[in-house]
Amino acid sequence: MFKFSLKQVAVFDAVASYESVSIAAKKLSMTQSAVSMSLSQLESVLDRPLFNRQGNRLVLSHWGHWLRPRAKHLLQEAQQIEFGLHDQHLISGTLSLCSSQTAAKHLVPSLISKIDNDFPEMRIKLNIENTENVIESLLNYDCDVGIIEGRNTDSRLQQEHWLDDDLVIVSSPNHPFAQYKQVTLAQLEQAKWILREPGAGTRRIFDGAIHGYIDNIKVWKEYESIRVIKSLVANGSYLGCVPYLDILPELENNQLVVLPTPQLNMQREISFIWRNDSAESPLRECLLSEARRLTKGKSFKPRKDWTPA
User: Fold this and answer.
1) Which of 78, 118, 150, 218 is most deeply buried (CB count within 10 A of its CB)?
2) How does pLDDT run across 175-219, given as a tens digit for each residue?
3) Average confidence (pLDDT) over 272-299
């Protein structure tokens, strides 16, 4: 029969996650010596080195990288078998979700509330990052599902469109451009900008939209926080590019205005992503199904009456 155990596979997965025997031992409630022995036995059975030591870190070897997704799949399937044998509802357990800022602020709280209400045995563990870090988190097995802004081009990940959310160019109502019926590309090139940091989905789409049109944009500051960007734009002479969903209160209170820039196409997708090699997951399917219901029939497009007449 099998020459290795699920426990050895779980130990391997934990050490791969934390790159440390001591941390893995603490997470598994095992002694360090027990973790080391279990890992050594697995490598002996497989007759392959699964890790390379780099200082105090244990880094996956070539064979370790090959084994990692298969170990994940095996552990997920084993968990579902255990749930079934104990007559537990399949929609039970913890799903690790890593989301970009806009979705995390405006959409994910309602999604988690709905799941908490309808599936009380399911837990969502949420982490908030920019799009680049969400993708990296998935590839490093640090989360189960991600929510990103824009397109994913990594063939190791699967993507499902959730909704569209336009980006808009905004300024203070006192900015000279706020009075224009149309703001040209030449005018945008002369402006001072406050933007998201490189790697953010918002920044990627903005850079893509101006590519080939504006060569030398004047980026004054870059911030991870949309709140900081909005505040600086509202109280200064800068322009900003932000998601429409993020500025509804400021539009209502006349703190910001949307500039008409018909030459720029900045529609973006907000999507779910997960690893192609991950096992079928009732928790993931539940999350996706509830997310579709949450936004069905809703529009997230800018209202034309908020642009200068």
Assistant:
1) 150
2) 999 999 999 999 999 999 999 999 888 898 899 999 988 888 899
3) 87
How far is Cα 159 from Cα 152, in angstroms, rounded to an integer? Answer: 7
| Cβ atoms of residues 25 and 34 within 8 Å | yes
Judge contact between 158 and 277, C-beta under 8 A: no
Give the pLDDT of residue 306. 44
Element (H, E) at 16: helix 6-18
Of 168, 174, 196, 98, nearest to 139 by C-alpha is: 98
β-strands 257-258, 157-171 pairing? antiparallel
In CATH, which of 2.130.10.10, 2.60.40.10, 3.20.20.300, 1.10.10.10 is domain 6-85? 1.10.10.10
Distance CA 146, CA 154 (A): 13
pLDDT digits (tens, 9 = 90+) for 55-114: 888 989 999 888 888 888 788 777 767 655 555 556 788 999 999 988 998 899 999 999
Is the domain 164-268 a CATH 3.40.190.290 member?
yes
Amino acid at 238: Y
Q: Are 141 and 68 in contact (CB under 8 A)?
A: yes
CATH classification of 93-163+273-295, choosing from 3.30.1330.30, 3.40.250.10, 3.30.540.10, 3.40.190.10? 3.40.190.10
pLDDT single digits (tens) 240-274:
999 988 898 899 999 999 999 988 988 888 999 99
